[in-house]
Amino acid sequence: MNLTFYKSKRLIFFLCCDVFLFLLSIFLAFSLRFSGDIPDIFYEGMIKAGLILLVLKITFLFIFRIYKVAWRFFSLNEARKIFFALALAELCFLGIFYFYGDFFNPFPRSVIGIDFVLSYMFIGTLRISKRMFVDFRHSNLIDEENPCIVVGATSKALHLLKGAKEGSLGLFPIAVVDERKELIGTYCDKFIVEEKEKIKDYAKDGIKTAIIALKLEQEELKKLFDELISYGISDVKIFSFTRNEARDISIEDLLARKPKDLDDRVVATFLKDKVVLVSGAGGTIGSELCKQCIKFGVKHLIMLDHSEFNLYKINEDLSLHKEKITPVMLSILDEESLNEVLKEYKPDLILHAAAYKHVPLCEQNPHSAVLNNILGTKILTDVAKKNGVKKFVMISTDKAVRPTSIMGCTKRVCELYTLNSSDENFEVSSVRFGNVLGSSGSVIPKFKAQIANNEPLTLTHPDIVRYFMLVSEAVQLVLQAAAIAKGGELFVLDMGEPVKIIDLAKKMLMLSNKNDLEIKITGLRKGEKLFEELLINENDVRTQYESIFATTSQKVDLQILNDQIQALVKSENPAQILKTIVPEFNHNKDGDYQG
């Protein structure tokens, strides 16, 4: 109710002002035309023209939605719209005058041009007047706001400074710095741009907050962050133009590695009008696969998961696309029901992300890991082949390389089974990658929870390292690999440089201003190893995408592998049989493996 009243009040105010200014404009235009002495003979034409122009100008201002713009959002874009609205109004009047000139005569046509200029000046000045007052007044909230330095003299910085003046950010900028020499000494809003090294002096004076108003790649952002910390800045924020907020820099910002070869066009061409089934659709990888399938235009998406909550969540996330999605609550171990689903929906492509992935839990429940990961994958592969699915992509893991855990070894067996099932009618490929940022059960959400509870951060080993990638980018690379797959390929994603987890923990404590919290070393867990590997050997070749490698996978006799899988399923202690299938399996069953 209050918002509606405010909008109505604003509309009435602007309408009244505009009516007055438009009438004043036509009078002054005539007055200027006749040097201040308008002959009586022209008054009738002036009144007629003024009223018609008034209606036209107000109409076009409504059409261009000028009356919906609040004072504080008036910008060059709105000024441009007013220019076009008034120009069209004058052009329409010229058209009327051309056909009905006698109605206005005598009427000097030069008045139209003068009226246009005066109208634009009056209307523009009215709307920018409050902006001018706001922009140049001294903030009265300085004592309540957080003083900060803006890094980067950019359009983002101008937007940030505007928001700070209006009090919407809770920040008080005191300086703008930039490392680009051509900008030093120029003005950014009312600030003279200073060199970046000046941050040291501001930090000595007690300023602890810096807001980054630059668009940077991950490596550049990480370098700038480290530089700001070295200057003495303890609170680093990033300004988001779309959200109009300065948010705290996150560990994801510093770790996210942006692949340079993401190819939307290839993925869109590959997925367009396909029927796609995603297994494990509610998991971290599966849900992102579902979202990107919808984004890139699949005809129909079957989302398969045995977790009710996970399936509910992804179904809600994609609720705007209900006509294109079908949630199926089903375990991949249910061969009969799975067969019915594939018969009914006839998918062209299966993206297999369903798996148990948590290393310690799989160590404690090896039989369940074998059933879900190996037997489930075998059943899904066999049913897909039987039902004429053209393409099958299995999501694998870096832990399948020279595995030391039950989970990693089960995924290696899955690779062997699926890839050796590939033929000319059933193209199967597998894609390996490392950790995705923020995935359920991973180290970053765990550290965040411990920091939130003011608990010590627990780390298994001071030298442990891991690869990280944003889930959205990892999934798009998976889809790109699927697009170029011909069958039988084992793809490996380039995850960039590995991250030392103890350094990650220290950085997260720093970002949270919780440097007082302890980091506890608990010892390697069963199945865990210090260094994850992605590439098996030096013969791996780069594909047409520099972030995707292809490697060869071992050929096995499927009949023998089937027999071994049946033995695994019946065994309560499957480690020995897994070692037979995967000779490089070096089980770290005691948690002391260092490789």
TrEMBL record:
It comes from Campylobacter sp. CCS1377. Belongs to the polysaccharide synthase family. Residues 276-551 form the Polysaccharide biosynthesis protein CapD-like domain. GO terms for molecular function: lyase activity. Keywords: Lyase, Membrane, Transmembrane, Transmembrane helix. It comes from the Bacteria. Its EC number is 4.2.1.135. This is UDP-N-acetylglucosamine 4,6-dehydratase (Configuration-retaining). The keyword Transferase does not apply.
